[in-house]
Design brief:
With about 325 residues, the protein is mostly helical. Helices cover about 55% and strands about 10% of the residues. It is built from eleven helices and nine strands. The strands form four sheets. Strands 1-2-5 form a three-stranded mixed β-sheet, with no helix packed on it. A two-stranded antiparallel sheet has the order 3-4. Strand 6 and strand 7 form a beta hairpin. The C terminus is likely disordered.
């Protein structure tokens, strides 16, 4: 049980991060919204893929490979970043995943690599498939961040802004952190805590849905190169994530630089390189994609027969 309310120009959240326990497994709000986000994201991506001539069964098969790879990548990336928490409790690497403890960049890398390798192996449309995956991925990320907003998992800096959030439940990681790191000049009163920036569950959540809107209503209409919608997604998310690090205080560092900022810079560079590669080698092109994006069919692409689901991808 819990509540969300506003109090003295701050949002207060008093909700237990744990929804239920089933033996060794713990279901948190983070885990619930992550699952909902995956379902919503896959549904959107499959629909976009079908619209551009990729059969539903092909898109679903790629998702069945990409989603598990994303989960594994997200967990492994987090475990590597926080190895000191797991080295003496190895079972928690698996059983503790529903409690939180995943890294979106790990999920991005794992999911994309898994799905990409599988698609290349079967010689399916690479650029078109990546473009279909991008909106679904950012949608899933945005929905998943709702769980972060409720749980208060990511430790953020204090703020006096009216949209600052106070986590009052004693099991909230943000509440526990504030309790152990009190300001001697401003000690906490009983049952009170400091207001912090809503970084993951506020700023990033809104940013994710803004990126989603740009992808669907701008990039999909303007970009004419297969795969560049996906590259735009990676670039926009990387830029946003780079600056959000300035509001968080729980990130691991390398050479004094937050790991997410380093990862953002690397993925931004990869997006630029990938854009160049996809410009020259976009992979097979479906007639549905050619008609929607280019408004014409190149000579080496046969017109669709029997609808998008039956169209055979061809190389441009």
């Amino acid at each position: 049980m819990g509540a969300i309310s506003t109090l003295f120009l701050a949002i207060t959240i008093d909700i237990n991060p744990v929804m239920a326990k089933f033996g060794p497994f713990t279901l948190t709000w983070h885990g619930l919204f992550t699952a909902v986000g995956i379902l919503a994201g896959v549904t959107l991506s499959v629909w976009l893929a079908k619209r551009d001539g990729i059969p539903v069964e092909v898109a679903q098969e790629i998702a069945l490979v990409g989603v598990p790879c994303a989960i594994v990548g997200a967990r492994l990336f987090y475990v590597i970043e926080h190895w000191d928490r797991f080295q003496h409790d190895l079972p928690s690497i698996v059983f503790g995943i529903t409690e939180g403890g995943i890294t979106l960049y790990g999920g991005l890398l794992g999911g994309v690599l898994g799905g990409l390798i599988y698609a290349i192996w079967h010689k399916w449309p690479i650029g078109i498939g990546l473009d279909a995956a991008a909106p679904g991925m950012i949608l899933g990320q945005g929905i998943g961040r709702i769980g972060d907003l409720i749980n208060g998992e990511h430790i953020a800096k204090r703020t006096d802004l009216p949209w600052g959030v106070k986590y009052l439940h004693p099991d909230s990681p943000q509440y526990q952190y504030n309790l152990l790191h009190q300001d001697p000049n401003n000690p906490l009163r009983p049952l009170d805590t400091y207001a912090v920036h809503p970084v993951a569950g506020g700023y990033e959540l809104l940013g994710d849905f803004i990126i989603l809107g740009i992808l669907l209503f701008v990039c999909y209409r303007v970009i004419k190169v297969p795969g560049w919608v996906f590259c735009s997604y990676v670039a926009m998310y990387g830029i946003m994530r780079f600056f959000l690090s300035y509001f968080r205080i729980d990130e691991q560092t390398f050479a004094g630089i937050p790991v997410p900022q380093l990862t953002a810079a690397i993925t931004l560079g990869i997006a630029v390189i990938a854009a160049g590669i996809l410009y020259k080698k976009p992979g097979p092109i479906t007639p549905e994609y050619a008609l929607r994006v280019w408004g014409r069919l190149p000579d080496d692409i046969a017109p669709p027969q029997g609808g998008a689901a039956e169209a055979e991808p061809s190389r441009a």
